[in-house]
Amino acid sequence: MTFHVKFHQIRAFVEVARQGSIRGASRVLNLSQPALTKSIKELEEGIAAQLFIRRSKGVALTECGESFYHHASLILEELRSAQEDILQRQGKLAGQINIGMGASVARLLMPGVISRFHQQHPQVKVRIMEGQLVSMINELRQGELDFTINTYYRGPYDHEFSFEKLFEKPFAIFCRAGHPALGATSISELLKYSWTMPTPRGSYYKQLEEVFINREQFPNIGVVCETFSSSISLVAQSDFLSILPQELGCDPLLANRLVMLPVKETLPKATYYLIQRRDTRQTPLTTSLITQFRRHARQINSMADEG
């Protein structure tokens, strides 16, 4: 006889996996620990597979559990999205939108779009995750992120996600005000200094790596920062150099601390894409937010053309 997985079993399993313990999931779901334990036991017996390894402090997913989690969490997110889609089509403009932003986008493009969207739809909750695309892949796969705007470097994701080019941004080499490198006009003059870069897992910085290797001019990257803000702070307050979005040179909060070095070499531009699952169907409000990002991207492209 085929075992039919029940919704409460999926919900219990996913929350226990996320919390790493029965106790934590019990608090989140407001259910008793015995009830959750029973749901998990029935699920494991029904599918004839052990999903968790019990430990002295909490639980961990087995290999089968990891596989089942990817499907189960996506089911819950699809159900949430489907419910919100129906409510929104009925005129109840509420719900939650989960988006991912590259650090540069989050700092300079996102605030205006999100502020405008929130004024139009104050009942909608927006969760913003900041980081490189590689750190968001699992959440995109599982439906926990509706979309991301990020750079993309060719890889194994083309069949899973759609990539819609939105805009390009020029990057430049920066140092602090008063840095001894001021006056340099070529990258070769800067190789003697220490450099910092955001994580090399980032799409644009993989692109940069190719450029430096081809020119046989590879800087001494002594510090790798996992966050964009860490790179900015380190450059602004030390003798490290870095390659950052050119627009930071016009940022009123940083203009007196960061100086752009006008080297003769042309650095590649970073291309930003709207990235979402190929099989996804966005809710009306998520579609509306995407439209606003597209509109803002067209403005960026127009200004770049005029410049």
Distance between the termini: 68 Å
How many beta-strand segments?
Answer: 12
Output the radius of gyration. 23 Å
- Topology as a string of helices (H) and strands (E): HHHEEHEHHEHEEEEHEHEEEH
Low-pLDDT stretches are none
- Individual helix count: 10
Mean pLDDT: 86
Structural class: alpha/beta
Largest sheet properties: 5 strands, mixed
Please give the share of residues in helix: 40-55%
- Categorize the overall geometry: globular
Strand order of the largest sheet: 4-3-5-12-6
Percentage of residues in strands: 15-25%
Domain HTH lysR-type: 5-62
Keywords: DNA-binding, Transcription, Transcription regulation
Protein name: LysR family transcriptional regulator
InterPro entries: HTH-type_LysR_regulators, LysR_HTH_N, LysR_subst-bd, TdcA/AbgR_PBP2, WH-like_DNA-bd_sf, WH_DNA-bd_sf
Note down, in words, how this protein is organized:
- The structure is a single chain.
- This protein has 307 residues and is an alpha/beta fold.
- Helices cover 42% and strands 22% of the residues.
- It has 10 helices and 12 strands.
- The strands form 4 sheets. It has a 5-stranded mixed sheet with strand order 4-3-5-12-6. The chain has a 3-stranded antiparallel sheet with strand order 10-7-11, covered by helices on one side. Strands 1-2 form a two-stranded antiparallel sheet.
- A hairpin with a 4-residue loop joins strand 1 and strand 2.
- Helix 1 crosses helix 4 and helix 6 runs antiparallel to helix 10.
- The termini are far apart.
